[in-house]
Design brief:
With about 80 residues, this protein is mainly alpha-helical. It has a domain at about 10-60: Hypothetical Oxidoreductase Yiak, Chain: A, domain 1 (Orthogonal Bundle), CATH 1.10.1530. The chain contains three helices and no strands. Helix 1 packs across helix 2 and helix 1 (about 10-20) packs parallel to helix 3. The longest helix has 16 residues, at about 25-40.
């Protein structure tokens, strides 16, 4: 069985575009894509791009806000 392989940049660009289409600002969509891809590259595929559809549905349903500034509660 041959596993499919994809270029990192192509996956990052695709995931970023999906995030932007859901309403995320471009910079945040790119960071989200990079973090999810990093999890995949580290072998944590359950926490990688497989989570993206759920994140996008959460934004589209309004359960998660796409815009806004995070509050830092504790900075160690």
């Amino acid at each position: 069985m041959t596993l499919a392989t994809y270029e990192y940049a192509a996956l990052r660009n695709f995931a970023t575009a999906l995030g932007e289409r859901a309403g995320l600002p471009a910079d945040r969509a790119k960071v989200q894509a990079e973090i999810l891809l990093e999890a995949d590259l580290m072998g944590h595929t359950t926490h990688g791009l497989a989570m993206l559809p759920g994140f996008l549905k959460s934004i589209e349903s309004g359960a998660t806000r796409a815009k806004g500034e995070p509050d830092i509660i504790l900075d160690r």
